[in-house]
Amino acid sequence: MKIFLWANILCLCFLPDMKAQNVTYDIAPDVQKVVTLYESAWENVKKTEGFRVQITSLSGNNSRVNAENLCKDFREKFPGMPCYIQYQEPHFKVRVGNFKNRLDALKCLQTIAITYPGAFVVRDKIFFTTP
What we know:
Helices cover 42% and strands 27% of the residues. It is an alpha+beta fold.
């Protein structure tokens, strides 16, 4: 019991002297080179596998203009969510979002399905965000 008491007293005596310290790491030049190479490689990656929600697919006369108008309408109703028009002959497809997994895409689908009842989740190349 006496040892425990003395240990606590000693800790309390030296506690005010303890301060947060800044820690710096010396990284070997070879390791720093690999880290820089890794970061620059990810900067060059524009797209990766993911999911989007497809609102519609249009073809025929004025389909491009209709797709642009639909995308504009979507941006007004759901600000902050990206909208994309993809052309795969002969269709203009309007797709929204950049989701890394299907669950996030399904959550988005539930939100927009009231306004766009024909929407569905598709696998697509999405814009990469930092890992």
